[in-house]
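Sequence only, no structure available. Ideas?
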Amino acid sequence: MVADRTLGAFLEEALAPQPLLLASARVFVRRGYDAATVEDILREASVSRRTFYKAYRGKEEAVVALHRVGSELLLGALRAAASSPGTDEERLGRMVDVFLASAKGSSGLTVELQALAQRRGSPLAPRRAEVTAELVAIGHEHVSAALAPVEWLALFSAIEGLTRGIVTSGRAGDELERSARETLVRLYRGLVAQR
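Reply:
I predicted one. Tokens follow.
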């Protein structure tokens, strides 16, 4: 849970055409997925139970849909960063910036969904596996084929962990983010140097 308890403007705008998902996102940020109820979502969206259940069978389907939208936005931004001009290290650095901006810009929703996706039996686990495979492919194809897929997996796991740590600590700032970026680039350099 984050102190801000609001969604970032970017996510608000992306979800605006889908009011039930927007309401779900607001509730999950405010209460956390486990504590959130369909009743909370109904109140936030100002819709009837029938309207909600026409779209989703329960909060599990809503969180899966929300994760899909969020992961597509993230993957699109990461593809753009990875395909941008510059050195491998510069592109990786921009990808780290995207991860941090995504997590900060969603005011904790990204972190909440990441944590849920990592749980055994989570409704998000299958999509998380797809997203992880796509991240590895983006790194391997657009940044550097010098690293093996398992090395890209390790780097993205480190990025995800650092991002979660920075956002949940409430200490996000330019210096901490710069340090995280530099640390991940050094990890990348070390892996490349071992080749």
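The two ends are 40 Å apart (CA to CA).
Hope that gets you unstuck.
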